[in-house]
Each structure stands twice: as C-alpha cells, then as structure tokens.
Amino acid sequence: MAYPCRGRAPLEYNICILVIGRKQNLLTLMWPVAHLIRDHHQVVARLERFSYPLAARLIAGLALSPDLYANTLRLEVLAHLAAVACKGKDQPNSKHLVDWAGRFMSKSNIAPHEDPIEDVFIGCATCSSGSFRVFGGNTSDGDFWVERLLIFLEEKQEFPPYQVVLRQVLALLKLSDALADRVGLARYSEGAGTPSGRIAVPSRGDMDAFCDALHFSDVDLAELTITRETLEPLIFKEEHRRQLLNESTGNSGLERRPLIEVEDGVLFVMPSSISVPILQRSFAYLVGNIERAYFPEEFFTTETMRRFVGDAVNKRGHEFARRVEHVFSEAGLQTSLELEMTKIGATKRDGLGDIDVLAWNSAKNLVYVVECKCLRTALTIREVVQRLEDFRGNKDEKDSLNRHLRRIEWLKSNLTAVAKYTGLPVLGLKLVPLLVTNETVPMQFFKDMNFPVSQVVPYENLTKQFRPTRSR
C-alpha cells in the first residue's frame, strides 16, 4: 500500500491511513489466546511451575537477539503462553528455555505464519524531543508511525491532555532507546533468522546480557527522568494476566502493557511490541476524542471536520440545557428552554441570542436566568488556565461568558418586560443569574472572573438545591 511521506498531512488523512495500515498488518497475526493455550498444551504444562516474572524475563531476552528476528511471531506467542500458564515459584534457566522455545515452539502451528524479514530490527523515531531507537517487532513500519504520531503530538500540545499522552509515549521510547544501547544495537540494525525454522537459543553469556538489560531499577528510571506514575498505564498486572485468556494477540493487554513491576523497578517483558502501546494509546485517544467531538474546531484543518465538531458540540449543549430545564421543572418552577431574547422584547440588533433556561418561582417572585455550559474535562494545569481565560466575562474580548452578562444587564434594565413574559409582579421581582456546568470546574475558585463565583453551580449541586416536589 502507498504510505504518505513523512511531511505534513491533514490529520483526518493520516488517521485513515494509520487505520488501514494497522488493520492490514494485524489481520493475519491475531489469534485468541485461549486457542493458543489449547494448541500448545505441552509447553503450557511445562511453564506452570515457574515464576512468571522470571520466565517472562528469559523469554523477553530472546526477543533482544537480532538472530531471532524472523521468529518474533513465535516468541511473542510464547510470551503470552507464559503470562497465562506460569503459576509457580520455581526459577527457570537456559535449559528450560531451550525446552520451551527450541523444542516445542519450533514445532508450533504458528511457525508457518512467519514471513521473511522486510524491516530492520531496530528502527528510529525522531522528533524535537530526540531520536529514539525502536524495536521493529511484528508491526510493519512501526517506527514510521511512531515518528508520525510523535510529530503530531508535539504540534498539538496546546490541546491538553496531549501532554499526558506525550509523557507516556516519550517514557516508553526512552526505555526502548536505553534498552537498545545496553545490548549494543545501533539504529537501523538488521535482523536475521529463518522463518518457520528452529529457534536456536543464544549462548548463556549472551542470554545473561540480554536478560540483565531488560531490568530498569528506580535509579535507572530517575536517570532517564521517568517516574513510576508515568509508567503506571504501561504496567502489566495480575488482573491483566487474568483477562488475557479472553483476548487475542495483535492487541492484547500484554502487548499494550509491555512492562511488569519488580521489587526495585520495572522489567521489559515485550520489547518487540514497543510500537503497539505507543500507537494504541495515541491512536485510541485521538480517534476517541474525535468521535466524541472533544477537540475544539481549530484542532482540525478541513471544513468538514470543523463542521462535524461544531454540530456535535451544539447537540451536547442542547441536551445539557434540556437536563437543566428538567431539574427546575421537576422542582415545580415554570420554565422556558432556549428562549430567544427577542420574545421578551430585545431587538435583533442587540445581538443577545437566547437564554438557555429561564425558570421562575411565582411564590417567591424569583426569576433564574441560567447559562448552561457542557465543558470538556480539564486534565492538566494548562487546560485549566485555558478554560478560565475563556470564562472571565471580558466584555472587550467577548469571551464565552460575555453574552450571558450582556443578557443579564438587559434584563435588569427591563424588569417590566420580564414581568410581562413570566406573569410575575414587577414590584419586588428579583433576577438570579446562574452559570450551570456539567461538572465541578476550577473556575468556581477563580477570583478574577467578572461574575460572582457563588453563582457558578455544578449540575450535581443544582439537583440537590432544586429537588422534585412531592406532588410529582
């Protein structure tokens, strides 16, 4: 298939190409783990008595040998078998590894699916954050797609929480590069081996070096400026092992989380699938947020996508306003949803738009003027600041709160028109402006807002303040 060049391309185009390339590459590489357990029952029986971390370390060591690159498929299957089967505490050695890989996996029915080597054993992904060596594994052009996503992530850092995704991606790439350095593998190192052939376990000295390289102590992580917190989503835990039987290779929990925790650090157990969690996390976040239209319109370059996001945001806003209106209605207040200001008496030239929810309490002569804001979740400090800037109520800059403030001013100056619309007496009529948000947001504590923070009410608090009347 024709891949785009490494230059710039519209986001939507790159996503489509990535989907096609990723699916096309994995279609023939996906086997249910339960079927692999069934078809490899002999090696599974031999794995059961061993400690999983120790067995995983040995198997992962094989994946660092360029001479076994052609056999990566079976090595990854063996890694999955160990993750499910190992339940004991015994320590395996190279003789056991020869038994598992050299004897039983050499006769595996997976062997015929191994293809001749086409990619380099060690690829390279370069961006402004550095140049990183990436193990090729079974992902076709994995380093290319990793680099493309890296460049994209760095260009879009003004759209949080991309910083979170970028930190995880860079942490994994730092580990990959350090791992390649430890075993003396330069970028674009070639691999070798015979597809479908016997898996020849390297010498004891080579295996010791490979296995030692897989371990990163807390001191090692600190030197690489990597925190355990950043690596947390990439750790393969006991609950993930239990779920593995219901998954398939190609996008399993083990491939998405290539690290396990050990006493004083982490251990790489799937170095050959390094590009899988990078692509999966970046791509899942990207596509998921596009599908939910959680990115602002300026995130996109095409008019079609900007229109899609605008329509989705408007739909969410309308649905949230209806929910807010329902709260007031159930509490016994009279309401009007998305009321055009012209129906109260404003002119079109005033440009005041509509009130999301107007609710009035006849018994107390109160009118609630409600602006509804269905906001995206703020996950980083930078996004918090951006959101606050958008809700200061600055009349000169005409931010998101400005039109609401102008409507309030008009209504206060035209109480007679409000009284006429609601049927309430103008004498003693009181307006209560509210800004209702779909969640608790930091703006409630932002002192520089040109709007009383006491009038910013999360939806959850609104439902507690206005409870349904008993008659209903």
Label this structure with key terms.
alpha+beta, Restriction Endonuclease, 5-stranded mixed β-sheet, 3-stranded antiparallel β-sheet, 10 strands, 45% helix
Task: Please give a structural write-up.
The protein is α+β, with helices and mostly antiparallel strands. It has helices spanning 11-26, 33-39, 41-47, 52-62, 72-85, 94-104, 142-155, 162-182, 204-213, 218-223, 228-231, 238-243, 253-256, 275-291, 303-330, 381-389, 402-413, 415-422, 459-465, and strands at 122-127, 130-135, 215-217, 259-262, 265-268, 334-340, 354-361, 366-373, 430-437, 456-458. It folds into 2 domains: 11-291, no CATH class; 303-465, Restriction Endonuclease, CATH 3.40.91. A 5-stranded mixed β-sheet has the order 6-7-8-9-10, sandwiched between helices. It has a 3-stranded antiparallel β-sheet with strand order 3-5-4. A hairpin with a 4-residue loop joins strand 7 (354-361) and strand 8 (366-373). The chain is elongated, with a radius of gyration of 30 Å. It starts with 10 loop residues before the first helix and ends in a 7-residue tail after the last helix.
